[in-house]
Amino acid sequence: MKIVTICGAGIGSSGILKVNAEKALATLGLSASVVAADVASVRSVAEDANVILTSQEFVEAIGDTYAEVIVIRNHFDQGEITAAVDRALGEH
Fold first, then answer.
1. What whole-number distance in Å separates Cα of residue 22 and Cα of residue 30?
2. Does the pLDDT of residue 19 top 90, yes or no?
3. Cβ-count burial of 31 within 10 angstroms (0-12 exposed, 13-18 middle, 19+ buried)?
């Protein structure tokens, strides 16, 4: 399983999401690789992703994908991120 976190430059908010997604996976006892990327490289990085975590502003730029795109409103809200990861991957 693969989670990709997307932001404008690939280092700021996607880095925060990456760390918090990894914490969520640990909390849930799930295993997945988590990759932070910028919106410009989303096509190559996310082609085999199961889930993309991002802000609302980047959803349109991501375009068509087989991954489930989940908008995270607060990148620091561990509860929101854990719930999103659980909904997306917890049943697999």
1. 9
2. yes
3. exposed
Helix (H, G, I), strand (E, B) or coil at 79: helix
At 52, the pLDDT band (50, 70, 90 cuts) reads very high
The terminus-to-terminus CA distance of the chain in angstroms comes to 10
CB 22 within 8 A of CB 34: yes
Q: Are 80 and 72 in contact (CB under 8 A)?
A: yes
Banded model confidence at residue 91, pLDDT cuts 50, 70, 90: low
38-66 burial by CB neighbour count: b if 16+ within 10 A, else e?
bbeebeebbeebbbbbbbeebeeebeeee
Total-model pTM: 0.90
Angle among Cα 54, 58, 61 to the nearest 5 degrees reads: 130
